[in-house]
């Protein structure tokens, strides 16, 4: 899936899902994002946006 607008919207609400949508598989970026999301939410959102936009 390559719809960046949808991915950014999903990243604001469910960051790990957005990382999974971008990569298409569960990899290290997904697990890092999951941990960051559990640590407060905002770090997970920032990481998801980084993965999607870079």
Could you list some keywords that capture this structure?
54 residues, mainly alpha
What's the end-to-end separation, in Å? 15 Å
The Cα radius of gyration reads 9 Å
Low-confidence stretches: none
Number of H/I helices: 4
Largest sheet: none
Number of domains: 1
Structural class of the secondary structure composition? Answer: mainly alpha
User: What is the residue-averaged pLDDT?
Assistant: 94
Total strand count, please?
0
SSE arrangement, N to C = HHHH
The 3D shape can be described as: globular
Task: Give the fraction of residues assigned to helices.
Answer: over 70%
Written account of the structure:
With 54 residues, this protein is mainly alpha-helical. The longest helix is centred in the C-terminal third of the chain and has 12 residues, at 42-53. It has one domain (4-53). The chain is 78% helix and 0% strand. It has 4 helices and no strands. The two termini are 15 Å apart.
Q: How is the topology of this model organized?
A:
Blueprint: H1 4-13, H2 15-23, H3 28-38, H4 42-53
Helix pairs in contact: 1-2, 1-4, 2-3, 2-4, 3-4
């Amino acid at each position: 899936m390559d719809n960046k607008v949808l991915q950014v919207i999903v990243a604001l609400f469910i960051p790990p899902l957005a990382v999974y949508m971008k990569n298409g598989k569960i990899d290290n970026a997904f697990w890092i994002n999951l941990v960051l999301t559990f640590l407060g939410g905002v770090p997970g959102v920032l990481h998801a946006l980084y993965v999607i936009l870079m």
